[in-house]
Amino acid sequence: MFEVVITSDVPCLFFWSHGMIIEKVMNNNCVQASMNGQEVIISGPGVGYNKKYGMSVPEHPANRIFYVRNEQKNKLYKLIEHVDIEYVFVAEKIVQYAEKNLEKNLNPSLLLILADHISNAISRVASGIQIWINNVFLDEIKALYKAEYAISRDALTIINEQFSVQLPDDEIGFIALHILNNYENSVDYESVRIIELSQIITGLIEVVYNRKVDRSSFNYSRFMMHLKYFSSRVLCNEEIKQKDIGDIYEQFLEKDILLQRAIHEIERYLYATFKYELILEEKLYLSIRYLPKY
């Protein structure tokens, strides 16, 4: 007697059971089967070779088994038609690792999204294509979402080791974005828009000061954390109470001749795009947190 172990809403591995009957041969290394009335996918070397509907699947130490939730099975079966099941196994490992370390539930669809993403990345390597898509948000993700970045960095290590490849660090950013966009029952993240807005504000400052920001510095990380919450307020159009700090802000303007122009460019962009008006306190905080530091 073997116990079935189901730990999440994504397909998961469990112990072998006798009486597994083939429902459909998906390819030489993958079959759809029935186990005690439950639909499963069995993957292993040659598990589908010369097999037909109704045949039993013999136990083999190299075989792996997935239980498939109803809401996922059609998408998963369709994915497996053109994606090696190994990518699904690795994606599942990453999803479970992320949920454990983030202590948050992720949407079941993330499994399929990651499997497809990994497949495409590995396919480029197999085809000898060394043209990679640069992740323009990588620095912002690293600064704004440290936990997701760290998990995605580990995920890239898992992928590289599992498939003996060396994917670029840009993949860390893409994996992190997939995670950020697939928090279950979460309304506190508009992650991509926050990252985009933070990047635009930083870019405006770089243009005014005619120099690149050191994105590896502590000051940049601290400024990005401020921009994360500032951007969230802008996107939600939240109002905060204005304080009487005009004199302090004027002192900053006197010390830096480019400061007023930089703040003006940010202010103009935010109003034109979001109809959001910067209050004096926000202008001062931008000045304190960023402009004198670089």
Fold and architecture overview:
Mean pLDDT is 77; it is low at 1-16. A four-stranded antiparallel beta sheet has the order 1-2-3-4, with no helix packed on it. α2 packs across α3, α4 (138-144) packs across α5 (146-163) and α7 packs antiparallel against α10. The chain folds into three domains: 20-68, Transcription Regulation, Sacy, Chain A, CATH 2.30.24; 87-180, PRD domain (PTS-regulatory domain, PRD, Orthogonal Bundle); 191-293, Orthogonal Bundle (PTS-regulatory domain, PRD), CATH 1.10.1790.10. It is α+β, with helices and mostly antiparallel strands and 294 residues long. It has helices spanning 70-80, 85-102, 109-126, 138-144, 146-163, 170-180, 191-209, 218-236, 246-255, 259-274, 280-289, and strands spanning 20-27, 30-35, 38-43, 64-67.
Please name the defining characteristics of this protein.
294 residues, Transcription Regulation, Sacy, Chain A, PTS-regulatory domain, PRD, 11 helices, 4 strands, 8% strand, repeat, RNA binding
- Please tally the helical runs, counting DSSP H or I stretches of 4 or more residues: 11
The biggest beta sheet is recorded as: 4 strands, antiparallel
Level-2 CATH architecture of the largest domain: Orthogonal Bundle
Q: How would you classify the quaternary structure?
A: single chain
CATH class categorisation of the largest domain = Mainly Alpha
CATH H-level superfamily of the largest domain: PRD domain
Envelope shape: elongated
List SSEs in N-to-C order: EEEEHHHHHHHHHHH
**Could you tell me how far the N terminus lies from the C terminus, measured between alpha carbons in angstroms?**
66 Å
Alpha carbon gyration radius: 25 Å
The chain-level mean pLDDT equals 77
How much strand content do the residues show? 5-15%
The CATH topology of the largest domain comes to PTS-regulatory domain, PRD
Low-confidence stretches: 1-16
